Amino acid sequence: MKKFVSALGAITLGASTLGMGSMASAEDLKIGLVVTLSGPPAVLGRQIEDAFNLAVEDMDGKVGGLDTQVIVVDSELKPDVALTRVKGLLERDEVDFVVGTVFSNVLGAIFKPITRSETFLISPNAGPSTLAGKNCNPYFFSTSYQNNQNFEVLGKYAQEQGIRSVFMMVPNYQAGRDAVEGFKKYYTGDITNEVFTPLGHKDFSAEIAQMSTSNAEALFTFMPGGMGVRFVKQFRDSGLADKMKFLSSFTVDEATLPAQKDAALGFFGATTWAPNLDLPQSKAFVASFEKKYGYIPGGFAMQAYDAALLIDSAVRAVGGDMSNKDAVRKALEAADFKSLRGKFSFNNNHFPIQDFYLLRVAQRQDGKYWTEIDTKVFEGYKDSFASECKM
Amino acid sequence: MTTLFLIQLLNGVQYGVLLFLIAAGLTLVFGVVGFINLAHGVQYMIGAYMTFVFQSITGDFFGALLLGMVAALILGLTLEVLVFRHLYERDHLDQVLATFGIILFVNEAAKVIWGPGTLTIAMPEILSGTIQLTDNLLYPVYRIALIGMGVSVALLLYVIVTKTRVGMLIRAGATNASMVSALGVNIHRLFMIVFGFGAMLAGFAGALAAPIFTIEPGMGDDLLIVTFVVIIIGGIGSIRGAFIAALLVGLIDTLGRTLATDVMRLFFDASAANQIGPSLAAMLIYIFMAAILFFRPQGLFPTQEAA
Amino acid sequence: MSGVSTSGSRETFSGKRVDRSLVVGWSIMALLMLTPFLTEFAGGNYVQNIVLKAMILAIAAVSLDLLIGHGGLVSFGHAAFLGLGSYVTGVALHEGVVGAVPIIAMVVIFCGLFAMITGAISLRTSGVYFIMITLAFGQMLFFSLSSLSSYGGDDGLTLWDTPILFGQDDLLRGTGLFYVTLILLVACWLLVWRLSLSRFGRVLRAAKENPQRVSTLGFNIFHIRLIAYVIAGTLAGVAGFLTACQTEFISPSTAAWQNSGNLIIMVVLGGLGTRNGAVLGALFVVFAEEGLSLITHDWRLIFGPVLVLFVLFAKGGIANLLPNSTAGQ
C-alpha cells in the first residue's frame, strides 16, 4: 500500500504545483498571451510574443504605468489544449487582459470563457467573421483586421487593374473559403478555377499543371506558413512566375520570406502595414525589433505591439483602476494611442477602421527580403460584417 | 485536357516513388523484425535536416545528400541499439508507445535546434532547369530526376531482395523469422541490417524531397500515416506490394485532388461541389484502403500466414 | 510475431485480485469526488477543470480498454466517437435542442450506428490491419466534420447554450458537470468491470488468445467483438457529449488521429486490461501535458524520453506499479 500512497502523494503534489503556477508574483497588471509556439506555425506565434515583450520593455515593464507581468501560454494549435490553458490564465492567474490568438479555430475555442468572465480579449491576428458580426462582444477587441479584408484588397486591386481572368487556389478550410469569398466581393472578372488543397499540402505539382493550362492572367492564393514556402518555391521552379501575376495574402510575408528568398521576389501580398511604412514610430519599431531579435518583424508583430499600446492607453485612461469594466471598455474604444500603422480607430464592432495596402516583395540593401508598400488600395476601410453587430 | 491528365499521372508517379522509398524500409522492418516503428518518419526528417546542414557547409547537394543518408543511418542504428532491440520481444503496443516517445523528442529537438520555421535547400544546378512538355507546360527537371532515382532504387532493392543471399534471408525472415533463426542465421545481425537499410532509405527520401517539399519540424508525421496506408495495402513485408501500393496511392491522391471537384460538379451545384470535392479527395486513400481490406483483409500481397 | 497480441499474463481473475482492483478503483473515485473540495485550497477551478478533462478522457480510455485490453482489438480511430459525440451534441444545441436526455439519446444512436457499420467492416480484418482500417474510418469522419461549413468547418463552433438536465441548466457546467462526469465515469467503470466478469467478457478475452478454439466451441466471435465495439463506441460518444459540455465548443480536431493515438497511449501507459490503468493513464497524460508545459514550452523534450524509459523499465503500465498487481513482475 505504501507505493500506492506515494503515488497519490505525487498526484496531489502535482496538482498543487499546477495551482501554484505563478502565485509568487504580485504585479498590478497581468496580461495573458495565448499564441501557438508548437510546430512550424510557431514562427507566427514567436513574432507576436517577441513584439509584445518588446512593447512591454519599451514601457519599462509598466503597461499603463502599472507593474506588468506577461504570462505566455502555448495553444499548440489545439483548441482543447488552448482552452485548458486559458482557464488557467483566468482562474489561476486572474489576468486582466488576454491577448490572442494567431488562428481562428483557437480563438473560437477560448472566446466564450474569456468574455463570460468579463475579461478583455484582444486579438492580435485572428478575426473570424462571426466575431465581427452577429457574435461581436463588448469584451472583445481586434488590433488586426477581419479575416476577409486582406482578400478583399486583392480582389479590388485585380478589378481596378482590369485583370480579366484569375486562378484561385486556397487550402480547404474555413479561412480558405473566407479568402475566396473575400476576393470575389469586388472582383467580377472570369475565375478560371477554384482549387482547394488539403491543409499542410506538400506537393503543388498537380495544381501548378492546372495553372499552366488555365491561361489565367493572375493567380490568387492564400497559403500561410510552410505551405506558402513550398508553393512559392515550386511555382517559381515551374517557370510560371513570368506568365502569371502572383496575388496573395499571408503567403509571402516576413515570416516566410527568410525561407523563400528570391523565389518570392516581385510577388504581391496585401495587408495594413509593411516594415518600410514611412512613419517615425513604425521605423523605430522595426529598427529596435531587428536589433533585439535579429529578424524583420511582419504584420503579426506590428499588430501585437499595437495591442500592447492599446492596453497601455486604456489602463492609463482609467488611472489603473481595472474594476470599472465599462470605463475600461470606453477607454479601449477610444483607441487613444499612436498606432504603428498610423490612422487607427475602432468601428462599432471593435474592429479597426484603417488603411489597406498592396505589398510587393523586395530585397533590401543588406540583402534581406521584406515586403514594401506598393499602392494604397483602401482608405479608412471598415469590414463588411459590422452591420450585423448589435452592440 | 489529355496533356493535363498525363502531367497529373507523372506527378502521381513521382509522389508514389517517394512514398515507396519510405515504405520500403517500414514494410521490411515490420515484416522481418515484427516491429512497429512509428519513428520511421523521423528518419525522413533527419535525412532532410542533415542534408540541409551539410549543404550549407559544403555547398554541394550530392555530397550533402550522401552525408545526410549516412547521418540517417547512424541515427537509425543508434536508436536500434539504445531502444528498439530491447523491444523486439515485447508487445506491439509497447513498441508504439516507445517509438511515439522518440517522435515527440526528435521533432521537438529539431524545432529547438533549427527553429520552428520552414527551411529550404537550393536544387543542384544541373537539375534546376525545366523541360518544355507542351506549348504552355513546363516541367521541372528535378522532378523527373526524382522519379528516375526512385525507380532505380526500387530496381536495386528488387535485385537485392530477389537475387542476393541477404535478400533471400530477408524474404525468409518476412515469412517466418523464428524458422530462419532456427536454421542458424544470426537473426539479430539480420535485424540490424534491415533497420539500418530502412533508416537510410527514409533519410534518402527526405533528402531528395527537401528541395521541393521544404524542411520543417514534424515533416515526417503526416507522411508516416500515408506510408502505413501504403504498406497495409501492399501487404506487410512485401517489397513488391509496397511498390505497387505506393504508386496506386500516389496516383489516387494526385488524380483525386484534381478530379474530385470536377466529378462532383456533375452531381451537385458548383458551391456544393467545392465543399464535397476536396473533402472527398482527402478521404480517397483511406476509402481505397478500407475497400482493399474489405476484399483482401491482408493486403494485396500477403507474405505471412496469419496477421 | 503474429500481428498485435496483447500480453495475456493477467488472465487470472482470482477473487482476491478483483477485490484489490476494486479497492484501488474506489480510492481513485473517492479522491476524484473530493477534488472540488481539495481544489478550494490549492489550484481552484483551474485544477478542477484539468481533472474534469482527464475524467472525460478516462471514460473514453476505459471504453477503449474494453477493446484493446480485453478484446485485443487495437482501434486507432476511437477519437472518431469522441468527435461524433461532441458534434451530435453541438449541432443539436445549435439547432435548438437543449434537453440533455434527447441529446444523449441521439449521441448513443449515432455513435452506435457508426460503430456498428464501421465495426462490421473493420472486424473482417485483424491485428495491424484492424489498426489501420479503424484509422481509415476515423480519418473519413474527421474530414467529413471538417467540411461541415454551416457548423464552422475546421474553425469549429462555439456553443452558446448549455444542455438542460432534469430541468436544471447548471448540472452540465462547472461543478455540476464535474459530478455528472464522475457518476458517468463510475458507471462506465462498473459496466466494463461487470462485462469483463460476465460470460461475454470471458469469451471476448478467450477470442483474443485463441480465436480458433473459441469458434470451435460454437461462439460467434464476430458478433461478440462487434457488440464490444458498439459498446465501446457508444461510451466514447458519451465522453464526446461531455467534451462538448466542458469546452462549450466543438472542433473537428477532437476526431483527429493524433487524439486516437493519445487515447491508446493512455491505455497502454496505464496498463492493459485494467480499468484503473485507463483512468490513471488519462490523469497522468493530462497532468503531464499541463504540468510540464508550465516548466517549458518545449515540454515534449521531457515527455518523449519519459515514455521511452517507461516502456523500457516499467512493464505493464502505471496500474502495475500499484501493489495490487499479480502480473508477476
Number of helices of chain C: 12
Instruction: Give, in spatial order, the strands making up the sheet with the most strands of chain B.
Output: 1-2
- Briefly note the structural class of the backbone of chain C: mainly alpha
Strand content of chain B: under 5%
> Strand sequence of the main sheet of chain C, in spatial order?
1-2
Helix share of residues of chain C?
Answer: 55-70%
Strand tally of chain B is 2
Average predicted local confidence, pLDDT of chain C? 83
Largest sheet of chain B: 2 strands, antiparallel
Global structural class of chain B: mainly alpha
Quaternary structure state of the chains depicted: heterotrimer
Question: Which sheet architecture does the biggest sheet of chain C show?
Answer: 2 strands, antiparallel
Give the overall shape of chain C.
Answer: globular
Q: What is the typical, i.e. mean, pLDDT of chain B? A: 85
Query: Over all CA atoms, what is the radius of gyration of chain C?
Result: 19 Å
Low-confidence stretches of chain C: 1-17, 324-329
Number of helices of chain B: 10
Provide an overview of this structure.
The complex is a heterotrimer of chains A (391), B (307) and C (329). Chain A has 13 helices and 14 strands. Chain A has helices at 2-20, 42-58, 79-92, 104-116, 129-132, 148-160, 174-186, 205-214, 226-237, 257-260, 280-293, 299-317, 325-334; strands spanning 29-35, 62-63, 66-74, 97-100, 120-123, 140-142, 165-171, 190-197, 218-221, 245-248, 268-271, 345-346, 352-363, 369-381. In chain A, the strands form 3 sheets. Chain A has a 6-stranded mixed beta sheet, sandwiched between helices. In chain A, strands 8-7-9-10 form a 4-stranded parallel beta sheet, sandwiched between helices. In chain A, helix 2 runs parallel beside helix 12 and helix 3 (79-92) runs parallel beside helix 4 (104-116). The relative contact order of chain A is 0.13. Chain B is mostly helical and 307 residues long. Chain B contains 10 helices and 2 strands; from the N terminus they run ααααββαααααα. Chain B has helices at 2-33, 40-58, 61-82, 92-114, 141-163, 165-182, 187-213, 219-234, 239-267, 270-295; strands at residues 130-134, 137-140. Chain B has a two-stranded antiparallel sheet with strand order 1-2. Chain B is globular. Chain C has 12 helices and 2 strands. Chain C has helices at 15-41, 44-70, 79-94, 100-122, 127-146, 174-197, 199-209, 211-216, 221-247, 257-270, 275-295, 300-313, and strands at residues 157-158, 249-250. A two-stranded antiparallel ribbon of chain C has the order 1-2. In chain C, helix 2 (44-70) crosses helix 11. The model of chain C is unreliable at 1-17 and 324-329 (pLDDT under 50). The interface between B and C is large, with 52 and 48 residues.
